[in-house]
Amino acid sequence: MELLLALVAGVLYAAGLYLMLRRRLAQLIIGLSLLSGGSNVLILAAAGVTRGKPPIIGDTSVAAGQFADPVPQALILTAIVIGFGVLAFSLVMAHQVHRSVDSDDIDAIGSSAVTATSDKS
Amino acid sequence: MLLALPVLLPLATAIALLLLPHRPRVLRWVAFAGALGLLAAAIALLVRVEAHGIHVLQVASWPAPFGITLVADLFSALMLVMVGIIGVAITGESFAGVDPRREALGYHPLILVLLMGVSGAFLTGDIFNLYVWYEVMLIASFVLMSLHRTRAQLHAAFTYVGLNLLASAFLLTAIGLLYGQAGTLNLADLARAWPERRTPALDAVLSMLFLTAFGIKAGLFPLFFWLPASYHTPPAAVSALLAGLLTKVGVYSMIRVFTLLFPDPGAGLYTLIVWMSATTMVVGLLGALGQRDFRRVLSFNLVGHIGYITVGLALWSPAGLAASIFYLLHHMLVITTLFLVSGLFLRQRRTTDLAALGGLFQTQPVVAYLAMVPVFSLAGVPPLSGFIAKLAVVGALLNADRYWVAAVALAVSLLTVVSMARLWDEAVWKPAPPHPSQPKLGAAIVTPIVFLVGLTLGLTVAAGPVYEVSRRAAEQLLDPRGYIRSVLGEEPSRVAR
How many domains are contained in chain B? Predict the structure, then answer.
């Protein structure tokens, strides 16, 4: 199970980073969300997966391994919420760019930025 | 309770600002009062930590390492005082007028949320919580950055957002792997348990992930390119806030996490940091020399001087780390002041292009003299704070027998003098270019600069005591046993609080 999750995380990281290197804003944003999805899977895989056990200890005599570790699940939930907020924000920003530049090519915004501030970066 | 105030006060102020009716005067006063409260709480905390040692709060009384811990040692408390000072200056600056559209879209609450995020990052004793505070301040800074919609600003905002989110993903990855191996997220507990769990392979992966994540945030070579590409576009007060605080949070986290998790002086990691710091200095200042815009010159200077701060961490000596902390204090003050000074030019000429500036000395000599202090302090002209900070860094380097790095630091400070002298000459000294309008600068826009310049002079005069506090903060960092004991609590009274 861990091996499968590790492979999924690796594929998500690779796909996310590849998309972030593209020029289109939409691909940048999809890349970012894949990357954050990948890190969520990675947290789960790294912390170890316990199958079929609840993340709650009702009885304090339960030994380790008899329950799923709740901490990674809490971390992932937090990260999902944060990722969702960030995704919403970047979508709104991309929409704004599209409205004002009428293109979702990052270099197209960049080239006009250069002429606007008359510098070469 | 005092420990939670630097987080709770800005939060309460931000909520109040959202609920209040939209009258600019009311909003500005409330935001200013919130920042003043933050500064007061930070100073009270510093006094308390100074007198009674490391101060710990277990949130909701969950004992460490299960709950979230807030910890203030001397380093955190010093940084919090700087957050308060910068917050007061920036919210004070808004009395000089804010673009009405920005103000209607929540400029003031966003600034307070940003201050809350930065305070939280400085206070937290939990590494996942650190990530959460990073996101809080990043979201606030993203919105502050993209409230304007010129093309240059949008492009800069996208560069900034993309690179910072990438850094966050790296940080989250590192935290996930760390938890998988160590089984805890509490920094003190990690520092205690990590030495038994670490393996060389995992160490290499984790230290590089942390270095990349914090290096992007701090603006270290070769990860700094987003910074000069974005800090020159937002309004002066916003770029002053970001320049003064955000990269410093990256440096702070680097120092905090590395002193706790990778306490091996002489490891390859620290050789790498020395190289990165030295290259950052050189590249940053060479970049600054090639720029023709006041704020871009400042951005490159900001990058270059981060190298002076991180090199102290790599030395792993009390003198080196003390120099880092003192440099950090000096640099936060001075770079914020300089970005606020750039606001004067924006107000007068609507541009910070050096070719269009000049003549300030002839028309308003008092303001020009005021701007002289941060310019010359950053350049490291004696006897100002920049000189003392550079002296401390170079002294620590020589004591550690790092002669070539000391030589680089000295050569780069010469470049800084050139860069700052040119900035002063072009922006203030040379005769004004033919220009139609040149409104006089009012008292409201100059007052925050007077406040910060006063503090810079104060830091110069009180350099001895402040350096002494920095040295003790460095000793606390280099001997994390006190930190671990305070958080995990040998004496149960602390845990039960």
Answer: 2
